[in-house]
Amino acid sequence: MSNSTKYIFVTGGVTSSLGKGIISASLAALLQARGYTVTIQKLDPYINIDPGTLNPYEHGECFVTDDGAETDLDLGHYERFLNVPTSQANNVTTGKIYQSVIEKERRGEYLGKTVQVIPHITDEIKKRIQILGKKNEYDLVITEIGGTVGDIESLPYVEAVRQMMWEFENDCIVIHLTLIPYLSAAGELKTKPTQHSVKQLLELGVQPDILCCRTEHPLDLNIRKKIAKFCNVSINAVIESRDASTIYEVPMLMQNEELDKVVLEKLGLHSKMKPEMTKWEDFLNRVSNPKTTVKIGLIGKYVELKDSYKSISEAFIHAGAENECQVQIEWIHSEKLNEGNVKEKLSELDGILVAPGFGSRGISGKIEAVRYARENNVPFFGICLGMQCAVIEFARHVLGWSDAHTTEIAEDCSYPVISMMEEQKSISNLGGTMRLGAYKCQLKPDSKASKAYNTDKISERHRHRYEFNNIYLQEFEKAGMIATGKNPDTGLVEVIEIPAHPWFVAAQFHPEYKSTVAKPHPLFVAFVGAVISNKK
Ligand code: GLN
């Protein structure tokens, strides 16, 4: 047995949205629970350098890592399941691959050769896959290939997988995630789309080792035999992947199907121990058996596509479990909120969260929601633009500065209470130029935030250009809105609170990115806790 890192590739067939990210994360969680160190990487076949410049309506939320990478939302699932931070290296796009190949070409590094998809692009892909393996930190690297096999843009990735399967014969396997549709008119599960999808992979020179079959109905022995026979896999490598009531159930379903065991066998690894899933099961139990329910309004402008707020909605599941409470999210479109209807639309809520965002669309609705929460003592949590709205609202209605705004929207307003950082002013490129990734924050003792964290030194992830304008801080504090968190190096305001309110806390950073099953985020836990007490 070699001591080298093992690579597990996850491809998808038949259709998109089968949940490759959740299957990868579930497998990783089971392997981790057996004592292995695992990381997961996503290869995205689109030409954007990263999703930072994408509208959330395209692929949902942009996730941010500690080292400031703007990434696909699947990285959020990886972190939530594994409780291990990801980094720049965990998300690769076609844009990044081409960018580095073209830069090398301009530097003359190809020595006058013609630069081609094979070998230059595929070599760059293989290099990016192995960066994580070569760190000597991980026993296993799971690489999820975005898109569906057969797509033109995923061809170089599948070719890179084919080459790696040859080069590292005993250290690589391929799991193909596919769909077994149920035809109700025939009353039957159909294997043909899976057969075709595996044939398509075979045409590209890749024989999958394991098939994960998404299905709405159980796969009986006959159907498993049929899939195994037509797709050249052993029968124990046909894994049923039934629809689950929550994504957090998938690791348990995969454990029942012995996916982790089959993977280890195929890689010639021994199970270090039985997967230790008791904490996970305990979490699942709490998710499934809540003692109370609360209704929290999420005020945002992308609510039609709930994936735009994925990390927030997952953080509420973690914080709900911690409080033995089911958090029912009411999705409220900020563009549809105004002074006239805010009471009617928000009066049934037990708590209010104003979401992050960019630009002017829907901002007046967000400000109205803050005002409602502040004036009616409804627990309030603001994140990033949500904090900026809380500051604007306080300036307008408590300090009486009716023309207060953020310079993102009103550059010439008389009270720019939120304004652009000096170093941002000269930047003209949009991609990767915000204040991104982890920064330290010092909390005031006795603040709600420091009580929630149970410490006064924290580090949280950022993704924004605008900041609280410190020239107004004294006046805010005199009137009752306190800066309870500041960057110790720059003095930038990170957290604001209104101590006289039952729970009014807002952060310039994004706490949602750091909430995991093993460590629900303290601010979400405290917010849900405050919502429950306030309801009583
Ligand atoms: N648009 C605001 C800024 O750039 C807030 C960003 C956010 O909510 N992520 O500062």
Question: In a nutshell, what does this entry contain?
Answer:
The chain has 18 helices and 23 strands.
Bound molecules: glutamine
Rg of Cα set: 25 Å
Q: How far do the termini sit from each other?
A: 60 Å
- How many helix segments? 18
Structural class given helices, strands, pairing? alpha/beta
Shape: globular
Low-pLDDT runs:
none
What oligomeric arrangement do these chains adopt?
single chain
The pLDDT mean sits at 94
Please give the order of strands in the largest beta sheet: 13-12-14-15-23-22-21-18-19
The level of helicity is: 25-40%
Largest sheet: 9 strands, mixed
Strand content: 15-25%
Counting DSSP E segments of at least 2 residues, the number of strands comes to 23
Please give a structural write-up.
With 536 residues, the protein is α/β, with parallel strands linked by helices. The protein is built from 18 helices and 23 strands. The strands form five sheets. Strands 13-12-14-15-23-22-21-18-19 form a nine-stranded mixed beta sheet, sandwiched between helices. Strands 5-2-6-1-7-10-11 form a seven-stranded parallel beta sheet, sandwiched between helices. The longest helix is centred in the first third of the chain and has 18 residues. The protein starts with 5 loop residues before the first strand and ends with a helix. The model has no long low-confidence stretch (mean pLDDT 94). The structure holds glutamine.
